[in-house]
Design brief:
About 40% of the residues lie in helices and about 20% in strands. The strands form two sheets. Strands 1-2-5-6-8 form a five-stranded antiparallel sheet, covered by helices on one side. The protein is α+β, with helices and mostly antiparallel strands. Helix 3 crosses helix 4 (about 180-190) and helix 5 runs antiparallel to helix 6. It has helices spanning about 5-45, 155-160, 160-170, 180-190, 210-225, 235-244; strands at about 55, 75-80, 85-95, 100-105, 110-115, 120-125, 130, 140-145. The chain folds into two domains: about 5-60 and about 70-180, no CATH class; about 195-244. The chain is extended, with a radius of gyration of 23 Å.
Amino acid sequence: MNLEQIWKKEYRKRKANELRKDRMILNWPIHAQRAVEVFRAFSDEASKDGIHLNVTEPEWSPHPRAIGSFILGATSVHLRFGIEKTGEGVLVRKKDGSEEETHYFESGAELIVHFSPAGGLIQVYFKHPVTNLEEKRKEPILYRNTYNSDDLTYDWLASLIPPFLAFNRFESVLARPGTFDSLRMRWWLFFDIRNRRGYIEKFQHLFTTWELLIAGLALSIISVIAGTIGFSLLKAINWIWDKI
């Protein structure tokens, strides 16, 4: 095989990716502003019924007088439920007659549209709500990603909000999940691109998630044909979930 041809083929791929990333970097501010507008419009609708959501714009550069650590290059747009009281807490009454009250709060779930110029990649995360009893949040769910900034249309951005609301209903201590919210959560976790925990240690993770899904469906079909009772489709899916 001609070595020059091998390199030229690789070079063309590298050049195409560089041009794509340059275009993403150039267009991201426009699409980020669109995300801000969509999220703000939704926040305004929610505020009419007394629900407060915060919208955070990208920080393109730190303030000249600001002190602290700042992320450079990567930027993001945030939609977050505000801080709310849970209605619970602790009252400590001391021997000297003094009292000390601690009230519990929840900082709501967060929808993040994040852009990384390194890979020219836009990622959508769902960040878990957290109370002041918890030391840190759980690892966020990677809900969606794209290598094309043109995907960030008004409808695409608006379509992120309903699943985010379902995520908040399931995770928040202040909300009640709907009938299908828990199934949605399992589905999102199942396809979370970064959800690789235990894959090396467990033999079953020599298979891909799709192979496991097909295996579970096959078991379900076999169980129906064989006339067995109790090993339903739901149990097959639960079997897959336990293997992940």
